[in-house]
Backbone:
C-alpha cells in the first residue's frame, strides 16, 4: 500500500473564503475528485503536508487518504504553490482503485551528458518534454523515466519510441514524438562545415595528384 498517509478533514466552507480560512488556521485546502462520487473540499495540516511533499513521493504517486477511521487510495495530481514564498496553497487528489490503470505525467531525466559524443563536440541538449504522460496501474507508477545519452551524436534525437519504459507502462503519445535532441551552436556548425570543406579539399588534391601521376606514367610509357 502507499507509504504516505494524508490525514484530511472536510472543509465546511468552499470557494475562496473557505480556502482562505483553511490557510489562516495552518492548513492546506484541497479537493478530492474522481470515482463515482462528487468532489469533496478537504484540508490537510500544512506541516504534515510539507513533510509528505518533501519525500518526493507525494505528487504523482499512490498515497493513502485517511478521514477518521476511513482510508482510501488516492493520487495527488496537482499542487499549487505561492509564487513568492513557495508555500503549498492548494492541492487536488483523485480517487483510484489500487490496481486501476491511470494516466499520469512523470518526469524525464537524462544521464551521461558528460560522455555524450554530441555534447562533447560542443552541442547542447534541447529538451522538448521534461515529463511525459503514461498509462500505468496506480500501484506501479515509476519514479522517473531515465534517458541515457552516452551514444547520442550531434543532430540525434530521442523519440518516445526510444524510451525504455518499465513493464506494464505505456506512453500515451505517439512513438514519433521527439523528447530531446542534441543540437549544435552556429559556431559549432561553422566549425563542422569548415572541417568538412578541408576534408573535401584534401580528397580533391589527392585525386588530382593521382590523375597527374597516372598521366605522367602514361607519357613515359608512350615515350
Residues:
Amino acid at each position: 500500500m502507499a507509504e504516505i498517509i494524508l490525514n484530511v478533514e472536510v472543509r465546511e466552507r468552499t470557494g475562496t473564503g473557505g480556502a482562505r480560512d483553511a490557510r489562516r488556521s495552518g492548513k492546506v485546502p484541497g479537493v478530492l475528485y474522481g470515482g463515482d462520487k462528487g468532489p469533496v473540499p478537504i484540508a490537510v495540516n500544512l506541516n504534515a503536508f510539507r513533510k509528505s511533499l518533501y519525500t518526493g513521493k507525494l505528487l504523482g504517486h499512490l498515497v493513502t487518504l485517511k478521514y477518521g477511521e476511513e482510508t482510501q487510495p488516492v493520487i495527488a495530481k496537482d499542487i499549487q504553490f505561492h509564487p513568492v514564498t513557495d508555500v503549498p496553497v492548494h492541492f487536488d487528489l483523485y480517487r483510484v482503485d489500487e490496481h486501476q490503470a491511470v494516466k499520469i505525467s512523470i518526469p524525464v531525466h537524462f544521464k551521461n551528458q558528460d560522455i555524450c559524443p554530441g555534447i562533447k563536440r560542443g552541442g547542447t541538449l534541447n529538451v522538448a518534454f521534461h515529463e511525459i504522460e503514461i498509462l500505468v496501474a496506480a500501484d506501479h507508477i515509476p519514479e522517473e523515466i531515465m534517458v541515457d545519452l552516452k551514444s547520442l551524436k550531434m543532430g540525434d534525437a530521442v523519440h518516445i519510441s526510444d524510451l525504455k519504459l518499465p513493464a506494464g507502462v505505456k506512453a500515451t503519445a505517439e512513438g514519433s514524438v521527439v523528447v530531446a535532441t542534441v543540437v549544435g551552436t552556429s559556431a559549432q556548425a561553422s566549425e563542422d562545415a569548415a572541417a568538412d570543406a578541408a576534408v573535401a579539399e584534401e580528397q580533391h588534391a589527392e585525386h588530382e595528384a593521382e590523375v597527374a601521376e597516372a598521366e605522367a606514367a602514361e607519357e613515359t610509357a608512350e615515350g
